[in-house]
Specification:
It holds the Pfam family Sugar_tr. GO terms for molecular function: monosaccharide transmembrane transporter activity; symporter activity. It is a multi-pass membrane protein. InterPro entries: MFS_dom, MFS_STP/MST-like_plant, MFS_sugar_transport-like, MFS_trans_sf, STP/PLT_plant, Sugar/inositol_transpt, Sugar_transporter_CS. By secondary structure, the chain is mostly helical. The chain is built from 23 helices and two strands. Strands 1-2 form a two-stranded antiparallel sheet. The radius of gyration is 23 Å and the shape is globular.
Length: 511
């Protein structure tokens, strides 16, 4: 049943409508974002709970309670504590390179299913943990699940979505990440009040709920037409799926482009080596810098350690967890706003608005903490509330721009022959720098104090300028025609067009 009007892309080539079939399929797949967001939100909350700290990190608890001379910024500085948070991301980094060949050889659906099953196992182990080793192993299994899901879900969404609405569909992943973060914050706030000190077990174990939805749902997910063309000898199977997904029999133009892209991909034997070619230079650069920039916005400072950060500036345990809920609500609302407008106003505009908003917010937060907090002070209620508002403004800017767009842009710019390899590089770089930020933030906060916010704010300024200069607009460009945007760009055309000219003359390729 169709739920939208028949539309064509701006190129006038592709027909299709938004069908209930594709909406339901993408909703199930996007659940992979919930498990990612849930884990981001849950870790910061449980590490601020006294019973959790007493059981697994007694040194941190004693330092925070008993040592009155230690700086506000250093009370949570513990490499073991940060290892609990960051171990998931180093596991995800490794897992994504296994996910790439699985996604390419067996399809997107298989990778999503593996991700859900691994996350289920990790949630069970974390909730039942009785020592630090069980806790860390559980986090590693969660990392394997997130590695497979993050590699396959954005690709699935981009390939299933009509080109005109690809931005909104793909942003469903980041919207689900926001739902996961908010759900984790709400659950932490509730379980923290459970008498007996075992509420953290519920927080960790409840990750199994969204993982169950993803795992069971993956069993019934259809494969994308792109994947069916790659793996099925009968092209009519892929064509019938494309007709069902688009809600129309007139899919000849899009199907022909998919077949042509698949024929090109078959000539590629070494996918990771192929992406190093000169003509793929812009995609390679974006697959590295976009996820790098997304992490050095400093968002994980808020997502992982929001309750700890609010404790640092003087909030109580319950107030800190509730403040994290508020910022989670703001981020979710702005991601939904971005989802509604991204295909109308474009990616570059949202990057610019969000970047300016994030930069100003971080500069003000750093200035207030430098002037009013100090090593042993506490912010007044007025300044504490102002910092909370500014953090909300920062999260809003991220939710509008680098949050969803950091996943959208890489998932839509790769041609089919390097798509799984490109997405793996994107996810791996994201995990690598998420691990680095998670592992170093508490030490950075201890040493740089309020300068931490100036550090991340400086990166926001750099990445905003980078997007303005080097990222072309991808709005309404069909995913199999994306190579054209680089040929028209003032900088990237020298790489893409030059090699195309060489190949058209004698088939050689410039290294």
């Amino acid at each position: 049943m169709a739920v939208g009007p028949v539309v064509a892309s701006e190129s006038g080539k592709y027909n299709g409508r938004i069908t209930s079939f594709v909406v339901l399929s993408c909703m199930v797949a996007a659940t992979g974002g919930i498990i990612f967001g849930y884990d981001i939100g849950i870790s910061g909350g449980v590490t601020s709970m006294k019973p959790f700290l007493l059981k697994f990190f007694p040194d941190v608890y004693n330092k925070r309670i008993q040592d009155t001379k230690i700086s506000n910024y250093c009370k949570f500085d513990s490499q073991l504590l940060t290892t609990f948070t960051s171990s998931l991301y180093i596991a995800g980094l490794i897992a994504t390179f296994f996910a790439s060949p699985v996604t390419r050889a067996f399809g997107r659906k298989t990778s999503i299913l593996i991700g859900g099953m691994a996350f289920l196992a990790g949630a069970a182990l974390g909730g039942a943990a009785y020592n630090i080793y069980m806790l860390i192993v559980g986090r590693v299994l969660l990392g394997v699940g997130v590695g497979f899901a993050n590699q396959s879900v954005p690709l699935y969404l981009s390939e299933m979505a009509p080109s005109r609405y690809r931005g909104a569909f793909n942003m469903g992943f980041q919207f689900c990440v926001g739902i996961g973060v908010l759900s984790a914050n709400l659950l932490n706030y509730g379980t923290q009040k459970i008498k007996g000190g075992w509420g953290w077990r519920i927080s960790l174990a409840m990750a199994a709920f969204p993982a169950s939805i993803l795992t069971i749902g993956a069993l019934f997910l259809p494969e994308t037409p792109n994947s069916l063309i790659q793996h099925n000898a009968d092209p009519n199977t892929a064509k019938k799926m494309l007709q069902k997904v688009r809600g129309t029999d007139d899919v000849h133009a899009e199907f022909d482009d998919l077949v042509a892209a698949n024929e090109t991909s078959k000539t590629i034997k070494h996918h990771f080596r192929n992406i190093m070619k000169r003509k793929y230079r812009p995609q390679l650069v974006m697959s590295i810098l976009i996820p790098f920039f997304q992490q050095v916005t400093g968002i994980n400072v808020i997502s992982f350690y929001a309750p700890i950060l609010f404790r640092t500036i003087g909030f109580g345990e319950s107030a800190s967890l509730m403040s994290a809920v508020v910022t989670g609500l703001v981020g979710l609302a702005m991601t939904f706003t971005s989802l509604l407008i991204v295909d109308k106003v474009g990616r570059r505009t949202l990057f610019a608005i969000g970047g300016v908003q994030m930069f100003i917010s971080q500069m003000l937060i750093g200035s207030i903490m430098a002037a009013k907090l100090g090593d042993h002070g506490v912010l007044s209620k007025g300044y504490g509330f102002l910092v909370l508002v500014l953090i909300g403004a920062y999260v809003a800017g991220f939710g509008l721009s680098w949050g969803p767009l950091g996943w959208l842009i890489p998932s839509e710019i790769f041609p089919l022959e390097i798509r799984s390899a490109g997405q793996s590089i994107t996810v791996a770089v994201g995990f690598l720098f998420t691990f680095i930020v998670a592992q170093t933030f508490l030490a950075m906060l201890c040493r740089l104090r309020s300068g931490t916010f100036f550090f991340f704010g400086g990166w926001v300024a750099v990445m905003t300028v980078f997007v303005y200069l080097f990222l072309p607009e991808t709005k309404n460009v069909p995913i199999e025609k994306m190579d054209g945007i680089w040929k028209q760009h003032w900088f990237w055309k020298r790489y893409v067009c030059e090699e195309d000219d060489l190949e058209s003359i004698d088939g050689t390729q410039k290294p």
